[in-house]
Amino acid sequence: MPSRYTLGGDEHLFVEVSESMSLDAFFTSILVTKELADRAIPGVTEICPANASYQVRFDPDVISVADLRAELEEIEAGIGDHDATLETRVIEFPVYYGDPWTHETLMRFRDRHQDPDSTDLEFAARANGYADVEQFIEAHSATPWFVSMVGFVAGLPFMYQMVERSKQIQVPKYLRPRTDTPRLTVGYGGCFSCIYSVRGAGGYQMFGITPVPIYDPEQQPAHLRDFMIFFKPGDIVKFRPVDRAEYDAIVEAVDRNEYQLPTAPVTFSLKEFEADPAAYPTTILEALDGTR
Amino acid sequence: MAPADPTRQGGTTIEVVKPGLVTTVQDQGRQGFYHLGIPPAGAMDQLSFRAANLLLGNEETAAVLECALMGPELRFSAPTRVAVTGAAMTPTVDGEPRSGNTVIEVGAGQTLGFGFATAGARAYVAVEGGIDVPEVLGSRSTYGLGGLGGHEGRALKAGDVLRTGSSVGAGGVADVGRELPESLRMPLGKERELRMIPGLYDYRVVPESLKRFLTETWTVGSEADRVGYRLKGGTPLEFVDREPPFGAGDDPSNITDACYPIGSIQVPSGKEPIILHRDAVSGGGYMMVGTVISADMDVIGQLPPNTKVTFTEVTLDEALQARADRAAHLERLRTAW
């Protein structure tokens, strides 16, 4: 199916690669937008890859939508010609699952939840056929995730799990959104995990919290020295469960500016993933060996 | 035009006595970071913002205060010229009414205040030299959800102290009494037509239902802020039946989370449309029926709650003509003095 082009008023061209989420659609979105950015076309002001679509903002006084669309169609046609790979990085994020702060918050909003007698983790485990929360946490943290979109609010990553579709976790959002979510909550809605970059409203299920800041306009932590936002679309994330003691230790290390976020460069190949979706993610994670 | 006065070099302090309802530092906004969730921010009514600066003799995009519905009280440490444009909120100096859309002077130790908005929603207060806050990612604008830019990343509070800057235009600060011609002011009505281009996910809606959406009169709700404008009072949309695509969610208004254009009209669960504005959430999982054209975004910034709104479908050519008309209006502002 060719991509669907549609106008977002006179300043945006919205391109839906696929109605449904897939790694394939995301890959097209990230590769087309990367190539468009490389071409540095006058009049193009914002290039925003999303999960299975992307959006370009432009100045119609400089470039017409017809010319922009022709450029994008040419880029997308060229992508099919070669073995699609993405030069990116893999990052390990510690997560304190079932922490007291998200627990306190979820208890305040049980009236907005489809299963008021369970925690969000218990509900998600049951909805995905896991015997208990421990097995569910193992499923959430064992395989890597693609950052398929950054947004909603500043620096918030949407993440898509690198597994066969049959193993993909799916959890409905809250019936009505909460008015509060702790900063750095690891959440889940539909087929996406996320990390809330700032405190605020949210509708995703809450699984835990990471001690590592991902957005800071003051750029205090070492890993935010280059830019105030940590994540970029295309990043690969691995979650590592930690307990309260390690969570506290990492918070202190971050405060002292001594925390090193395990990060390694990596090349992702869609063909190799599709050839062996069970084993290929493990080879991606090998890049992290020696970074801890 | 007043000759350059060596005693006027910026650095005047402005003490916030009362903050008003929502008063923020804004300018032209920032671009290039929407893909990371950072929206443009900036004055919602760009025409009134630029008019305030040009009237006063500032650089066109010097930072101003955007004051929603109920203005602040501001005490100045030194004589300062000021211009107020946009919403009809009569400026006062130590309680004495002054003219809007006119260059006025606030003396040392005097307090600038405002009457309630009698028309429009946002007044723009330009002070000579502009508001001096640090530029963040190319703009002095406040982005509240992200705690970024402006004064400490947030709306003003009582006790805050601002400083004036040195963003005066080449011609110098204007004389007291200079007026913005009526024809260059933003019209402020109780009913507004917003022109839009259908598209995005409009195919999710049954055609007759979309047609009705475009003929009904909507009312601006109380949740009308810099992120978006919620509208009430219309008939819920009727969606085309479907099997939910993987990743989209079960509600018929859900889509696989995607980017939201500035000005796009989303309709969560088909009920109350929300028009995203300059502090937009950059993406999410609700379908959008179309996008308000760029030339009508200023208008939205001047809609107070309870204003009646209708949508009018236009073609891309019509949108581009409206855009050219707006550019011509801006050019008349630049050459007015």
Automatic annotation (TrEMBL), chain A:
Gene3D superfamilies: 3.30.1360.40, Cyclophilin-like. Keywords: ATP-binding, Hydrolase, Nucleotide-binding. Residues 3-224 form the Carboxyltransferase domain. Signal peptide: none annotated. It holds the Pfam family CT_C_D. GO terms for molecular function: ATP binding; hydrolase activity. This is Allophanate hydrolase subunit 1. It comes from Knoellia koreensis.
TrEMBL record, chain B:
The keyword Hydrolase applies. It holds the Pfam family CT_A_B. Transmembrane segments: none annotated. Coiled coil: none annotated. One of its GO terms (molecular function) is hydrolase activity. The keyword Nucleotide-binding applies. Residues 35-329 form the Carboxyltransferase domain. Keywords: ATP-binding, Hydrolase, Nucleotide-binding, Transferase. This is Biotin-dependent carboxyltransferase. PANTHER family: 5-OXOPROLINASE SUBUNIT C (PTHR43309).
